Amino acid sequence: MHATLPQLISALLQPVRYAHPVSAVDLVQTHISWVLLAGEFAYKIKKPVSLKFLDFGTLEQRRLYCEEELRLNRRFAPDIYLEVVPIAGTPEEPLLGGAGAAIEYAVKMRRFDEAGRLDRVCERAELRPEHLSDLAQGLVAFHEAAAVAPLDSRFGTPERVLAPMMENLDISSGLMPGADCQSRLAALREWTTSQWQRLTPLLWERKSAGHVRECHGDLHLGNLVLIERRVRMFDCIEFNLDYRWIDVASDIAFTAMDLVQHREPGLANWFVDQTLSASGDYEAALLLRFYAVYRALVRSKVAAIRAGQGGQTGDEAMSYVALAERLAAPQVPRLVITHGLAGCGKTTESNRLLLEDPDANTLRLRSDVERKRLYGLSALQRSASPLDGGIYVADAHERTYDRLRDLAQMLLLAGWSVVVDAAFLRRAERARFEALAQRCGAAFAVLAPQVSLEQLRERISARQAAGSDASEATLAVLEKQLGWIEPLEVQELALRLGPS
Question: So what's the pLDDT on residue 244?
Answer without folding.
Answer: 95
